């Protein structure tokens, strides 16, 4: 389950790692492009405002220059002067003089047909006023903007106010007062115009990027086609794509590297230890003289989150190789005391054997942990036996120190799987051991033609000679049991009696086995085939 979960998470992360930088880069580009385009629109709105003010200033100058002493208006000299002024002015198309509220003459000469004066839309300071949409006699085709002062009126083409060089997809506009549009350089969009004239504002909608500025009494604005404006992003995308791809590749590589690390057996084991996924099962040890359960061997089992069991033959070598055996042994000690303290306190003749690896033995680290746990729980140190394989005793001087320290602390020490490693008589003689466990391969060979069958009696004799207690492992048949009993072996464990049991079942087995030969639960335990998932493999 965990492996699958990690794989799924890694795959999702890899996809995200691939996509996210690209999406982030694209998003960032877009945000920057929109912000830049809005600034661009604001700039153009400002230029439009400047242009409109220039036009108004030009019209004001023209109007003041047109004035002549009273009584000389519309004289040939005055008309010539009006013509000259209109020609010189950059923004003004024509100038007219009104007498008694009616047009008397223009730069073209006296006006035969009298035209009434249109009331102003906007009053400016200094006696100037503006009419937004005037339909003059002289420019019938197009409505004009007009500025008046005294009896004079100057005509201005509205487009002069928005006469700013722009990109083709951009529209400029100028308005006055609340919602009075004066001039627009391009297409119109009524809804957008309302927003812009009400301005100042800046933003983006489904079709436009826009901005408007207000400098009373004028509001200038600019908007551009959104698709066109963002179109140049395509080039930026193309430029940034390789960079995004590079970042994505690096991230995907990182995700794969991290998930590989997490999926490595070592990492999985470390996580399992941290999450305390281990339980201890207890294989009963039987006193062959009376059939009573006098001890148990604590055997670790790894219960994966998906319910799968993993046997110690798989994870103990890995833990030893990677140095994870120390925290695992700490966990074993903690679990054994947690599981068995009450039973051990209730039956002082009962003991539990724990397996200590060669590395534990060399470091000696397990002993203070064990001493602390035993002291805290009120269990006698002699009730915890220590088993170490022959491997643990190879470096005899170091091992001897560790064994002595453990025995000094009150524990019994046994050599495990005897006969399978590098043991020699001299090794055995040199170590202050209490017990020897005969490996199950020698027990299996009893009463068979196997070559090892001849070795078994010698191991037993040697152990007797060294005054070691003997425990036979892997007893599966009555025949083996009878042989061992006859050979003076006192203690035995094996499937003949029980597989390794969970703590609560071991308590029942032990209780039952207080009666010689065992009761119902012992028979059940013998009959179990799946009780210990690992042993039954
Ligand atoms: N065929 C057969 N097998 C039997 C029979 N009776 C018991 N066994 C199995 O023989 C092994 C005895 O443990 P071991 O020799 O200490 O060998 C242990 C021990 O060296 C190591 N181990 C187990 N728990 C721990 C631990 O907590 N710490 C350390 N360092 N090593 C451990 O893993 C080894 C394997 O343990 P398990 O798989 O639990 O296997 C156990 C047990 O289930 C039987 O009648 N027939």
UniProtKB/TrEMBL annotation:
SMART domains found in the cross-reference section: EAL
Compartments, as annotated in UniProt: Cell membrane
InterPro entries, per the entry: CSS-motif_dom (IPR024744), Cyclic-di-GMP_PDE-like (IPR050706), EAL_dom (IPR001633), EAL_sf (IPR035919)
GO cellular component, one term: plasma membrane
Catalytic activity, EC: 3.1.4.52
UniProt cross-references to CDD domains, sorted A to Z: EAL
Membrane topology classification: Multi-pass membrane protein
UniProt entry tagged with the keyword Membrane: yes
Keyword Transmembrane: yes
Keywords (A to Z) from UniProt: c-di-GMP, Cell membrane, Hydrolase, Membrane, Transmembrane, Transmembrane helix
Signal peptide: none
Stretches that traverse the bilayer: 237-258
Ranges where the record places region Disordered: 517-537
Low complexity bias (residue ranges): 528-537
GO MF term set: cyclic-guanylate-specific phosphodiesterase activity
Top-rank taxon, per record: Bacteria
Domain EAL: 262-514
Catalytic activity: 3',3'-c-di-GMP + H2O = 5'-phosphoguanylyl(3'->5')guanosine + H(+)
Protein name: cyclic-guanylate-specific phosphodiesterase
């Amino acid at each position: 389950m965990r492996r699958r979960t990690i794989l799924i998470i890694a795959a999702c992360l890899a996809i995200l790692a691939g996509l996210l930088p690209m999406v982030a880069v694209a998003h960032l580009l877009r945000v920057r492009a929109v912000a830049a385009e809005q600034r661009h629109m604001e700039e153009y709105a400002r230029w439009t405002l400047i242009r409109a003010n220039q036009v108004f200033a030009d019209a004001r100058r023209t109007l003041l220059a047109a004035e002549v002493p009273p009584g000389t208006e519309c004289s040939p000299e005055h008309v010539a002067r009006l013509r000259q002024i209109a020609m010189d002015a950059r923004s003004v198309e024509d100038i007219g003089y009104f007498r008694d509220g009616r047009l008397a003459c223009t730069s073209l000469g006296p006006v035969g047909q009298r035209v009434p004066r249109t009331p102003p839309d906007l009053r400016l300071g200094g006696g100037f006023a503006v009419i937004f949409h005037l339909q003059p006699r002289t420019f019938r085709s197009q409505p004009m903007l007009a500025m008046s002062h005294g009896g004079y009126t100057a005509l201005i083409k509205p487009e002069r106010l928005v006469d700013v060089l722009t990109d083709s997809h951009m529209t400029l506009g100028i308005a006055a007062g609340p919602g009075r549009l004066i001039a627009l350089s391009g297409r119109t969009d009524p809804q957008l115009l309302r927003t812009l004239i009400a301005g100042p504002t800046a933003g983006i909608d489904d079709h436009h990027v826009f901005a408007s500025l207000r400098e009373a009494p004028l509001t200038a604005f600019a908007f551009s086609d959104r698709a066109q404006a963002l179109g140049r992003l395509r080039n930026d995308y193309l430029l940034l794509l390789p960079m995004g791809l590079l970042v994505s590749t690096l991230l995907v590589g990182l995700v794969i590297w991290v998930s590989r690390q997490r999926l490595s057996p070592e990492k999985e084991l470390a996580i399992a230890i941290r999450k305390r996924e281990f339980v201890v099962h207890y294989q009963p040890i039987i006193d062959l003289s009376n059939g009573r359960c006098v001890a148990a061997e604590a055997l670790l089992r790894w219960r994966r989150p998906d319910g799968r069991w993993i046997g110690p033959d798989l994870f103990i070598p890995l833990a030893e190789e990677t140095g994870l055996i120390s925290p695992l042994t700490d966990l074993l000690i903690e679990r054994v005391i947690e599981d068995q303290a009450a039973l051990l306190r209730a039956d002082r003749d009962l003991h539990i054997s724990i397996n200590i690896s060669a590395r534990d033995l060399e470091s000696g680290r397990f002993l203070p942990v064990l001493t602390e746990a035993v002291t805290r729980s009120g269990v006698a140190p002699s009730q915890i036996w220590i088993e170490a394989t022959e491997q643990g005793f190879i470096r005899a001087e170091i091992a001897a120190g560790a064994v002595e320290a453990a025995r000094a602390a009150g524990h019994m020490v046994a050599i495990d799987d005897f006969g399978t490693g590098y043991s020699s008589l001299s090794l055995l003689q040199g170590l202050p051991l209490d017990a020897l466990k005969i490996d199950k391969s020698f027990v299996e060979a009893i009463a068979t033609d196997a070559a090892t069958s001849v070795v078994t009696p010698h191991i037993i004799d040697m152990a007797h000679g060294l005054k070691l207690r003997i425990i036979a492992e892997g007893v599966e048949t009555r025949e083996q049991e009878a042989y061992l009993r006859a050979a003076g072996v006192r203690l035995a464990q094996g499937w003949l009696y029980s597989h390794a049991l969970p703590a609560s079942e071991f308590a029942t087995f032990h209780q039952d086995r207080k009666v010689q030969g065992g009761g119902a639960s012992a028979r059940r335990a013998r009959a179990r085939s799946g009780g210990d998932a690992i042993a039954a493999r």
